[in-house]
């Protein structure tokens, strides 16, 4: 079918999708979602990178399905993570933009989440790595007491977290409800305002920094790096940035080992390759692309370590691994880490336009791989899949009931993820940024881009002919554009796109 005919048949196909029931018998594989942070479409060698090698990601792809149209639902961290766990587009809920250091939990504990579904299906559940969905009730986290509600209140049995994101304060681990290693005599204080005029910051002590900032990251200094926001105390609890990836692997391995006998669901939320990029010393200088490239190597190492653990415990043949990213790439995201100067010919978005913060394809189309040893026939798929669909797909795979009025935008793509012949991906996908009101809307091979705002402007691209979104063809295709505008508005106004 031509892109145009796919588009105009969309309503019929949507009906088919809505009534589709999976023929897959209930299986309860372990599920690991490996989410990279800010990893772009062109950042892995199996997606065309030649300036560096990602052998472990490549091996995962070679043994599974590599998607060329795999998406996350937003081009920044918090909304994509919100949608992964709730199966609902983040733009439907206010306050789901990039969470501040003292931000409260963005997911209502009453909401049924992906880990809730997993628990209903008899799974152990854990999140290890970057959280960045806020913690605590209205007033935010009680850093020195019980930090809740948090992941344990929305379906995870275990959590070992970087509570926010590492360019924001504080640099401590939170395990379940507590900051790890906190000395009660040295309480942790976190705030938006400088705690005193003698408090050293990235502005007053700029010459002491081991990595300088370029914009905005000039608050409290820890480990020679200044951050967004301020904090004092909690000295014994603070980690070294260089050790984060090792810690995620150590904690993941021990959790997997302890729960290998019952099906488990692990959300492995890497911090690589988000700023500040400060990989372990053994990766520094290894890519030739600066710390950004070195952090990609570190992330690739993490993928390899997780795979080794599955092999060692002989559970690889019973584990579905999904690798994805939470948004597209960015070079200078607030620190002078050499990402721009050392880029050379490397193209973080590959052939795609835009990156992090954008609703062009590079903002949300990223590496996306599904692998299940011995179960998935390896290959490459051009079907459209999105991180938001993991919830409904998981429910179908495990024959768990998806509540009618939740997971409002999550589609069952389990057959696509498992590489079943002729299985069809999404007919449409709404792409958002951090919540500015701009949208991308893909239907078949057509892509509509809306500028948002009062005097909304639109562009139209034919991704089949123009994957880089270089030529706006809205003038010659006004009928297509009108229909797409209508659809986009309808999905936004309806409050849901599942089961329409
Ligand atoms: Ca991110």
Q: Give the beta-strand count.
A: 18
Quick one: CATH superfamily? Alkaline Phosphatase, subunit A
CATH-defined architecture:
3-Layer(aba) Sandwich
* Overall spatial form: globular
Task: Specify the biggest β-sheet.
Answer: 10 strands, mixed
Mean pLDDT: 95
Number of domains: 1
Give the proportion of residues in helices: 10-25%
CATH topology: Alkaline Phosphatase, subunit A
Q: Record the strand order, biggest sheet.
A: 6-5-4-3-11-1-12-13-2-14
Class inferred from helices and paired strands = alpha/beta
Using the coordinates above, name the CATH class: Alpha Beta
Bound molecules: calcium ion
- Cα end-to-end separation: 24 Å
Which percent band covers the strand fraction? 15-25%
Output the number of helix runs: 11
Order of helices and strands: HHEHEHHEEEEEEEEHEHEHEEHHEEEEH
Q: pLDDT below 50 for ≥5 consecutive residues: which ranges?
A: 1-8, 12-25
Radius of gyration: 22 Å
Q: How would you characterize this protein structure?
A:
- With about 500 residues, the protein is an alpha/beta fold.
- The protein has a single domain (about 25-425), classed as 3-Layer(aba) Sandwich (Alkaline Phosphatase, subunit A), CATH 3.40.720.
- It contains eleven helices and 18 strands.
- The protein has helices at about 5-10, 10-20, 55-60, 75-85, 115-120, 245-260, 290-310, 360-365, 390-395, 415, 480-495, and strands spanning about 30-35, 65-70, 125-130, 160, 175, 180, 190, 220, 225, 230, 265-270, 320-325, 370, 380-385, 430, 440-445, 445-450, 460.
- The chain has a ten-stranded mixed β-sheet with strand order 6-5-4-3-11-1-12-13-2-14, sandwiched between helices. Strands 15-16-17-18 form a four-stranded antiparallel β-sheet.
- β16 (about 440-445) and β17 (about 445-450) form a beta hairpin.
- The protein is globular.
- Residues about 1-10 and about 10-25 have low confidence and may be disordered.
- Bound molecules: calcium ion.
- The site of calcium ion (CA) has 6 residues, from loops.
């Amino acid at each position: 079918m031509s892109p145009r005919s796919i588009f105009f048949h969309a309503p019929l196909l949507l009906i088919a999708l809505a009534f589709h029931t999976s023929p897959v018998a209930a299986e309860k594989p372990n599920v690991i979602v490996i989410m990279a942070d800010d990893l772009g479409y062109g950042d892995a060698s199996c997606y065309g990178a030649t300036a560096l090698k990602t052998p472990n990601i490549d091996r995962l792809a070679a043994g599974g399905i590599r998607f060329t149209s795999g998406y996350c639902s937003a081009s920044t961290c918090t909304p994509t993570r919100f949608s992964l766990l709730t199966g609902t587009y983040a733009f439907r809920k206010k306050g789901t933009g990039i969470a501040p250091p003292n931000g409260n939990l963005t997911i209502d504990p009453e909401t049924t989440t992906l880990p809730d579904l997993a628990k209903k299906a008899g799974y152990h559940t854990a999140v290890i790595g970057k959280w960045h969905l806020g913690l605590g009730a209205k007033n935010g986290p009680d850093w020195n007491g019980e930090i809740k509600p948090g992941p344990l209140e929305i379906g995870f049995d275990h959590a070992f977290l970087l509570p926010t994101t590492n360019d924001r304060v504080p640099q401590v681990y939170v395990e379940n409800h507590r900051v790890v290693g906190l000395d009660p005599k040295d309480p942790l204080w976190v705030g938006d305002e400088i705690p005193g005029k003698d408090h050293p910051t990235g502005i007053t002590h700029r010459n002491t920094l081991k990595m300088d900032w370029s914009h905005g990251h000039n608050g409290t200094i820890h480990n020679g790096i200044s951050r967004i926001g301020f904090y004092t105390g909690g000295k014994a609890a603070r980690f070294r940035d260089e050790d984060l990836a090792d810690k995620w692997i150590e904690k993941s391995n021990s959790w997997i080992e302890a729960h290998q006998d019952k099906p488990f669901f692990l959300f492995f939320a890497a911090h690589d390759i988000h700023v500040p990029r400060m990989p372990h010393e053994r990766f520094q200088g290894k890519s030739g692309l600066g710390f950004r490239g070195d952090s990609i190597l570190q992330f690739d190492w993490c993928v390899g370590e997780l795979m080794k653990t599955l092999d060692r415990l002989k559970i690889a043949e019973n584990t579905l691994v999904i690798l994805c990213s939470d948004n597209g790439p960015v070079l200078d995201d607030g620190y002078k880490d050499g990402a721009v100067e050392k880029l050379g010919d490397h193209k973080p978005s590959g052939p795609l336009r835009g990156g992090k913060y954008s609703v062009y394809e590079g903002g949300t189309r990223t590496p996306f791989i599904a692998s299940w040893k011995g179960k998935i026939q390896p290959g490459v798929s051009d079907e459209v899949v999105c991180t938001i669909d993991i919830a409904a797909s998981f429910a179908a795979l495990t024959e768990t009931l998806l509540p009618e009025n939740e997971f409002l935008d999550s589609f069952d793509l389990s057959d696509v993820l498992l590489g079943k012949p002729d299985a069809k991906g999404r007919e449409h996908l709404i792409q958002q940024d951090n919540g500015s009101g701009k949208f991308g809307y893909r239907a078949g091979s057509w892509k509509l881009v809306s500028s948002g705002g009062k005097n909304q402007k639109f562009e139209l691209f034919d991704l089949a002919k123009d994957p880089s979104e270089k030529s706006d063809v809205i003038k010659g295709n006004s009928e297509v554009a009108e229909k797409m505008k209508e659809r986009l508005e309808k999905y936004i106004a309806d409050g849901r796109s599942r089961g329409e």
